[in-house]
Amino acid sequence: MTTLTYRFAATLSGTWKPGDEIVVSRLDHDANVRPWVQAAARAGATVRWAEVDLPAGELPAEQYERLLGDRTRLVAVSAASNVLGTRPDVAAISALAHRAGALVYVDGVHAAAHGPVDMAALGADFYATSAYKWSGPHVGAVVADPALLADLLPDKLASSPDEVPERFETGTAAFADLAGVAAAVEHLAALDDEATGTRRERLLASMAAAESHELELFATLRDGLASIPAVTTYGAAAHRTATAYFTVAGHTPREVAEHLAGHRINVWNGHNYAWELTAALGIRDAGSAVRAGLVHYNDAEDVERLLTALERL
Ligand SMILES: Cc1ncc(COP(=O)(O)O)c(C=O)c1O
Asked: Hey, whose CA ends up nearest to atom 8 of ligand 1?
């Protein structure tokens, strides 16, 4: 996804002029920030920042009304934060962006792993995802209307195809990995064994079932974390993924992750590339926090084991 976003930033910014504007957010993974910021610097375009409402961790959509103007060319925003789990109101943000004549590039890397995706409802012109986040191999994808892609001219070899989407590919595709992507989609579509219909219908049903399963478990995790006095959690968005981000008083995030690993619980510590957000939270220099994410294969016993291991610490 990072590589593709750099490719789209280089391509889209080719038409940006000094005085044009883009809007990025402090909620986003840096892969949906820095490629745009660096492309804007090269084009002489101005970067405007959407701020996160802390400590709730929401990205208020209303602020886009003042961030957008008739010079705005692009809005880059996340469908879900990979640390706080916040799902911003992308539909509202896109509606405002489109009214201003801007394109919307949505980072769906975290979101796509945790629920059904409806690009049209989000109003995304581009939707980026990475198959390794949803049981597949490490293949990134940017999904967009072929008519929109046909207007874009990425740097490419003279000999490579001009057609869309092939004009965006470099060299020979990773065919073995692509076969793995299809297998991962099949796997996800089969999670809900009662789902019927086309693969897309089964996929949507399965991901909706996965999302409600995860959020039910998350309620227990959230309440359990809140009941441990030494634990501080970050983010309390109403619309979210089942992703907890927390610190434990008296222990660095790294120590907490190592302690949990000793209990055979896999979490991640650090900024997780949520570079601007962890700085805004004031925790980046101290090792940021610990992320515990729930997915479809987790169960109540996993949550209980995590809470018990933290209580012991
Ligand atoms: C929200 C989000 N965006 C972007 C990325 C980058 O994806 P990739 O590793 O495919 O470049 C990640 C990876 O962790 C992510 O979580």
From this structure: 1
